[in-house]
Amino acid sequence: MRASRTLNNPLFFLLPALLLIIVFYIIPLVITTWVSFTPLRNWRITLLSKYIGLENYRDLFYFITHDPDGILVLKTTVVFVVFTLIVNVLGGLLLAIATYIIEEKVSLTFRLLWLLPRMTPLAVFGLIWYYFFYGSPQGTLNAFLLHLGLIDKPYFWGTDPRLLPWSAWAIIVFVNGLVGVSYGMIIFYSAFKSIPPELITAAKVDGASTWQIIRHILVPMTRWHLVFVTVWQLLSLVTSYTHLFVLVDWRIVDKWHGTTWALFVFNEAFGDVKNQGLAAAAAVVLVIIGVLLGLVTLRIMRFSQTTPEPKGDL
């Protein structure tokens, strides 16, 4: 009887997930919060016992309000998250629609091609774009534009002051968008394939055009997936820094025009001048911003209406 009651308890099935959340999220968050109230630098563990109050948060506030680099980090973060989110969600939706309405064999090849950026190792992917935007006549983009006569001299696309800030921002959005757009494509495509084919057939019999099928059947019936992909990509972009790190570290883009809040946290913690206390304070703020953005996005997109209570009898 006791074993039966245990198996009927929902907490029994949630326990593995709860343990993972506690071990890999809650505990690190608590430790990070404590570090943000200490003067920890250069991983000197003895400094963890010293409490300095809100000094790191005051330094962080001064950095983002008075330091031009701090202000630029905020601008870069907003531009990167907003525009890359648009590319990842709408681009993924358009790719899913395209791969759904074409022949299956062609669709499979098309989907595999779009998955290549996500499957390519980070170093290799970064090297591709290093040579693509390289500021010499041998750089892929420069060589192509010089051949067409569209430019008369090569440009350092991500670092030339004459092209900043939009050139650097365009590069980080473009490169990260190529990686992220495939995720939305796979989610939306699987959602389309789960729609009963009888609905599509009936619509075609009634004379519905492809555009009408997309507008009135495909998109409305994947609303939950649209909410999920939007929130997932939003939170992922807020905390993303790996591809940005390669672009900045290899000087493909200007340092501060390619540094988002998440990359700033990483550089403060592991860069040349290691200030873990300030990095921890910035990380805590990032967590708070991420939680608020997630909740606001769910509210704006009316998540509760996409998951109604089941109506079946028990």
Describe the fold and architecture.
The structure is a single chain. About 70% of the residues lie in helices and about 0% in strands. The chain has a single domain (about 70-275, about 285-305), classed as Orthogonal Bundle (MetI-like fold). The chain is an all-alpha fold and about 325 residues long. The mean pLDDT is about 90. It is flat, with a radius of gyration of 24 Å. It is built from 15 helices and no strands. Helix 3 (about 55-65) packs across helix 14 (about 275-300), helix 6 (about 120-130) packs across helix 12 and helix 8 runs antiparallel to helix 11 (about 225-240). The longest helix is centred in the first third of the chain and has 34 residues, at about 70-100. The chain has helices at about 1-10, 10-35, 55-65, 70-100, 105-120, 120-130, 140-150, 165-195, 195-205, 210-220, 225-240, 240-250, 260-270, 275-300, 305.
Quick rundown:
This protein has 15 helices and no strands. By secondary structure, it is mainly alpha-helical. It has a single domain, classed as MetI-like fold, CATH 1.10.3720.10.
